[in-house]
Write a structure and sequence with these properties.
The chain is α+β, with helices and mostly antiparallel strands. The protein has two helices and seven strands; from the N terminus they run ββααβββββ. It has a single domain, classed as Structural Genomics Hypothetical 15.5 Kd Protein In mrcA-pckA Intergenic Region, Chain A (Roll). The chain has a five-stranded mixed beta sheet, with no helix packed on it. Strands 2-5 form a two-stranded antiparallel ribbon.
């Protein structure tokens, strides 16, 4: 799926909620903390990691590409 970025960046946890990958903020935190989220192919454990244009987030078989 694609996410249209408005602004310079979005925090990882907010992206997961907006794209409905995480049902709640708490669910998003668990996914990130348990190492189930990949950012550009690498495990990302920072909840407030800034995600920029061109980044690719993968979680539970879902790929989110950040576009303009």
């Amino acid at each position: 799926m694609e996410f249209k970025l408005k602004g310079e960046y979005i925090e990882l946890i907010k992206l997961l909620k907006i794209c409905e990958v995480a049902q709640t903020g708490g669910h998003g935190k668990i996914l990130i903390t348990e190492g189930e989220v990949l950012l550009n192919g690498e495990v990302e454990t920072r909840k407030r990691k800034k995600v920029y244009l061109g980044d690719v987030v993968e979680v539970e078989g879902i790929e989110i590409v950040v576009v303009e």
